[in-house]
Amino acid sequence: MDVEVLGSTNDQLSVIFRGAQPTFVNAIRRIIMAEIPIPAIEKVYVAENTSVLYDEILAHRLGMIPMRGGETLVPPDQCNCGGKGCGFCESVLTLEVEAKEDNVVVYSGRLKAEGSVFPANNDIPIVKLNSGQKIALVAHARLGRGKEHAKWQPVSACVIKYEPVVSIQADCDLCGICVERCPRKILEINENEKKLAVRSIWDCSLCKVCEEVCPKSAIKVSYNDKTSRLTIETTGSKSNEELLISAFDFLIKKCESLKNSIGGATNG
Ligand SMILES: [Zn+2]
């Protein structure tokens, strides 16, 4: 298997896997979405809330804010407290804002971290307070996985695309209709070599418009499922690279545990 990083920014990472089974790449995708533990707010103790939002909606909005940190936290199911919540498996954040004279928009940056967990982004609006309104609350964050609730899903997008294959037959007469009609503009006529060329193959959406409009049926669009591109967009809880590496580690551990179980079963 050959792996190539197609592009990487703070928000998005695109990696090409060549010679990998689609099921393998899909396993990595599903692990990233459902199995990597990240922190999120799970309990909210509201001391005062005179805003227009009910306590429940406020708690829900707080729960959906991507959180960072929590490396020292123990997953609640492995904690000595039995999952009830304690200083080892939970991290506390507080929020106290009062709009004294003017309207105030309360952003995630106002959440004060008392432990190791803090908001991944400080500019997420939580609630708008009118003058005289106030909120005061204590929130407890804990580690969780995407399969429990979407708030523990570390990615906003995690998708696979097979490599598009555009084959141009010899009877192409360079009429240029496909170049004009392609919605992604991936085709061009190479004037020097006098032939139709594909500019950026990964931009092809497999819509097959070129195939339909070609009067000579000289163009065929298909895909290669042995080469796929995995695109990850983090919510900010972990970096895209950390997520990808954690997914591989998780898959290795899962395979080892399966191997041990099979070994135990056959020996017994
Ligand atoms: Zn605990």
Question: Could you explain how this protein is built, in words?
Answer:
This protein has helices spanning 22-34, 55-63, 177-181, 209-213, 240-267, and strands at 2-8, 12-18, 38-49, 67-69, 90-98, 104-107, 112-113, 117-119, 125-129, 134-144, 155-168, 187-190, 195-198, 219-234. The protein has 268 residues and is α+β, with helices and mostly antiparallel strands. The protein has 2 domains: 2-34 and 163-231, Alpha-Beta Plaits, CATH 3.30.70; 38-152, DNA-directed RNA polymerase, insert domain (RNA Polymerase Alpha Subunit, Chain A, domain 2, Beta Complex). The strands form 5 sheets. It has a 4-stranded antiparallel sheet with strand order 1-2-14-11. β12 and β13 form a beta hairpin. 28% of the residues are buried. The mean pLDDT is 94. The protein binds zinc ion. Zinc ion binds next to loops.
Distance between the termini: 36 Å
Structural class: alpha+beta
The CATH homologous superfamily of the largest domain is called: DNA-directed RNA polymerase, insert domain
List the ligand species.
zinc ion
CATH class of the largest domain: Mainly Beta
Task: Give me the Rg, rounded.
Answer: 25 Å
Strand numbers in spatial order across the main sheet: 1-2-14-11
